[in-house]
Design goal:
Structural class of chain B: mainly beta
Helix content of chain A: under 10%
Distance between the termini of chain B: 41 Å
Number of helices of chain A: 0
Low-confidence stretches of chain B: none
Number of helices of chain B: 0
Radius of gyration of chain B: 14 Å
Number of strands of chain A: 11
Mean pLDDT of chain A: 93
Largest sheet of chain A: 7 strands, mixed
Oligomer: heterodimer
Shape of chain B: globular
Strand content of chain B: over 45%
Low-confidence stretches of chain A: none
Number of strands of chain B: 11
Structural class of chain A: mainly beta
Helix content of chain B: under 10%
Largest sheet of chain B: 6 strands, mixed
């Protein structure tokens, strides 16, 4: 149990375009999902926390208009990188917390975004 | 906010040896301490976790110890195998807000046959 999927696993896009990444909890309901960004050889940095049916909470320094997060159901959250630039190229990872769970987060396999 | 320090940044051991990775945290309210293993190009995988009401937890070759007074916790891997080679991250979470995780910078473990 506690499987989280992400789609796509890899995406290459042109500068100025938008890219949508999906995060799904496959076998549990997730009231809270998290989005992280990880640059090469670095740790995971939390970008935002999303709760089903409400607006996401963004970490300091993360532009909410650039990284649009939607958590429309208990099993799906999406991250849209708008007007992508080469500096947005990174490994984006989502995680999900079971409804009613205290702290545990289960991570997806990540999405490698390359902006040309 | 919480700050998690992790050492060492790299660790090389021979197959069969033990490996120890240490982390310290700053927020005394933190009460959940997971350890993740991340292989190249993949998402982090939870390998073991411990809560603040427990001092030690063991799962086969992996153990975690927690010293709340000193605010540090450690991962112990015994009888290491080449497939243990990966980057390991510690994290800490407090019960406030959304109970977000703060990660250490990671330790690259290399187990040589």
């Amino acid at each position: 149990g506690a499987v989280v999927s992400q789609h796509p696993s890899r995406v290459i896009c042109k500068s100025g375009t938008s890219v949508k990444i999906e995060c799904r909890s496959l076998d549990f309901q997730a009231t809270t999902m998290f989005w992280y960004r990880q640059f090469p050889k670095q740790s995971l940095m939390l970008m935002a926390t999303s709760n089903e049916g409400s607006k996401a909470t963004y970490e300091q320094g993360v532009e909410k208009d650039k990284f649009l997060i939607n958590h429309a159901s208990l099993t799906l959250s999406t991250l849209t990188v708008t007007s992508a630039h080469p500096e947005d190229s990174s490994f984006y990872i989502c995680s999900a917390r079971r409804a009613g769970a205290l702290n545990e987060q289960f991570f997806g396999p990540g999405t490698r975004l390359t902006v040309l | 906010g919480e700050n998690v320090e992790q050492h060492p940044s790299t660790l090389s051991v021979q197959e069969g040896d033990s490996a120890v990775i240490k982390c310290t945290y700053s927020d005394s309210a933190s009460n959940y301490f997971p350890w993740y293993k991340q292989e190249l190009g993949k998402g982090p995988q939870l390998i073991i976790d411990i809560r603040s009401n427990v001092g030690e937890k063991k799962d086969q070759r992996i153990a975690v110890t927690l010293n709340k007074t000193a605010k540090h916790f450690s991962l112990h891997i015994t009888e290491t195998q080449p497939e243990d080679s990966a980057v390991y991250f510690c994290a800490a979470s407090s019960p406030s807000g959304y109970s977000t995780l703060t990660f250490g910078k990671g330790t690259m473990l290399l187990v040589s046959p």
